[in-house]
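dude i think i finally got it to work??
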Amino acid sequence: MSTKQGGKAKPLKKPKSDKKDYDEVDMANIQKKKEEEKALKELKAKAQQKGSFGGSGLKKSGKK
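look at this
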């Protein structure tokens, strides 16, 4: 009757959560959030295509 004693213990599995019932207000908020995330992704993609703003960035003085 040997038991496994060394090493790391396995984490316990979480029970599966039940599906939640959403009302109209919750569904509207979820939909709005998805649309905002989609718009943000599109803006990020456009910003990456154009490159940096202003070109040169910060100007450094010649002094040390």
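Residues 14 and 41 are 32 Å apart (CA to CA).
im so relieved honestly
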